Amino acid sequence: MHSITVTVNGQAYTKEVEARLLLVHFIRDVLALTGTHIGCDTSNCGACTILINGRSVKSCTQFAVQADGKEITTVEGMAGEALHPIQEGFKEEHGLQCGFCTPGMIMRASDLLSKNPNPSEEEIRWAISGNLCRCTGYNNIVKAIKYAASKMTEEVVES
Amino acid sequence: MIPGSFDYSAPSSLEEAISLLQQHGDDAKILSGGHSLIPMMKLRLASPAHVIDINRIPDLDYIKEEDGVLRIGALVREADLEESELIRSKYPIIYEATKLIADPSVRNVATLAGNLAHGDAANDHPAVMLALGAELVATGPNGSRTIAIGDFFQGFFTTALEVNEILTEIRIPSPAANSSGTYLKLERKVGDYATAGIALQLALGPQAVCESAGIGLTNVGDMPIKAIAAEQSLVGKTLNDEHMKHAAELASDASDPMPDLRGSAEYKKNMVRVLTYRALKQVVEKILS
Ligand SMILES: Cc1cc2nc3c(=O)[nH]c(=O)nc-3n(C[C@H](O)[C@H](O)[C@H](O)COP(=O)(O)OP(=O)(O)OC[C@H]3O[C@@H](n4cnc5c(N)ncnc54)[C@H](O)[C@@H]3O)c2cc1C
Ligand code: FES
Ligand code: FES
To answer: Which of A20, A25, A58 sits opposite B6 (nearest CB)?
Structure first.
């Protein structure tokens, strides 16, 4: 067993874990944060996407021990008092149907917008190319991310 | 899918990592990006007793050019290559190949060194490094040695790395004036492994005579292929349509694909020909424009 300390959504957790425990299982089963989903379990679908030190990572293809000392953000960490602009975008633009892919899409969009605050439609489509959605046909997801981009740039201008 | 049990260590220096490798030999596996290793462990195609995570070793994440050589450290991620202004402007062949590997979340983690060390003919960087004439630095208990990329791939998932060696650096000769390259990949869907891929790097001299040519092929044999006859057919020629077509035929002859879900062997060989011809036209145009 290994003792790891991981900060998840701002809160530090110290836990004993087996080396083979996958990060996604650590998040869901040990921390009981079930917003992070498991779709394919083979690093293809992106449902398990989280942020490690701000960068999107597929948590089904990491061991929890690798995250020792790191800062993790899951979908539960996005909203403050109000929804995060990306979440608001998914709501306003009807960016989800069943919602299974949504947490992963939101985390991926968060990484994209932190590097490219004003992405073109094409850039958004490339950026979510590792996140699969079986329901929406993607168009409203692209619109949701556009919505978030303009809202977040407005907020920066205002502040 | 849950991998078998293993012992895990995350050494904080190269020396420590190498001594762990020495201690455990064949029972140990290096973990860098983990995006080939972990899927294999989950499928139990790999069940190493010891996993040595090299991600905590400092100073292995550099991309720098000095004395006419580009040096890329073992922990440089695909995303670092994609975001590097140096790579984008001066090494378009690397930039273009990198963008076509998997997806952005995989690229945030996966490393160039791991992509090569994995020895998978389906990976895209081996062909690029064959076209660029890279050298790989392997560091083991007796220090470092360099391996020419042409000697690195030795068979199906087999490389020239010894069990106690770590691939620490990739060295690429800086491109001469009037040179450029490209990577063309036929894929069924974005982020898939190649049905066929071709990496091309060309240097032209006065009167547009070809001074050097590097051609690497992806996923059309049991290991990455350097299309030597095709390369040689170009050197010393003024690259007209006939020479390009001939080289494309020779590149196709060098491929030895297996039929699978991505297509028949005949189709893939034909695609190598088409992609090589297309790459030659594009790169010559790029250099002359
Ligand atoms: C969904 C998905 C799609 C993908 N699509 C593509 C694609 O289109 N094209 C492509 O090229 N690749 C693709 N890959 C593979 C990806 O690029 C891998 O990350 C890469 O092959 C291995 O790099 P890594 O850093 O993850 O290595 P790891 O998985 O950590 O290691 C791979 C192997 O190399 C060894 N190794 C790693 N680093 C070193 C080192 N420094 N010295 C010695 N040995 C070492 C390990 O022991 C292991 O045997 C894909 C992967 C996934 C999950
Ligand atoms: S569950 Fe991790 S990518 Fe599908
Ligand atoms: S909303 Fe159902 S998978 Fe995307």
So the answer is: A20
Question: CB atoms < 10 A from the CB of A21, how many?
Answer: 21
Cα–Cα distance, B90 to B108 (Å, whole number): 22
User: Using CA positions, which residue lies closest to atom 4 of ligand 3?
Assistant: A133
Q: Are residues B48 and B78 in the same domain?
A: no
Chain B residues with CB inside 8 Å of A123's CB? none
Give φ, ψ of B209 to 5 degrees: -80, 135
Rounded to two decimals, the ipTM of the complex is: 0.96
Q: What is the CATH number of the domain that holds A51?
A: 3.10.20.30
What Å distances lie between residue B143 and A142, B52, B75, B159, B214, CA to CA? 51, 19, 19, 19, 30
Question: Tell me: the pLDDT tens digits for B64-111?
Answer: 999 999 999 999 999 999 999 999 999 999 999 999 999 999 999 999
User: Which residue matches tokens 């001299």?
Assistant: B205
Q: Which ligand 1 atom is at minimum distance from the Cα of B54?
A: 41
* Residue numbers of the domain that contains B260: 179-288
Regarding the beta carbon of A35 and ligand 2, being less than 6 Å apart is answered no
This prediction has a pTM of 0.97
Q: Are strands A71-73 and A2-8 parallel, antiparallel or unpaired?
A: parallel
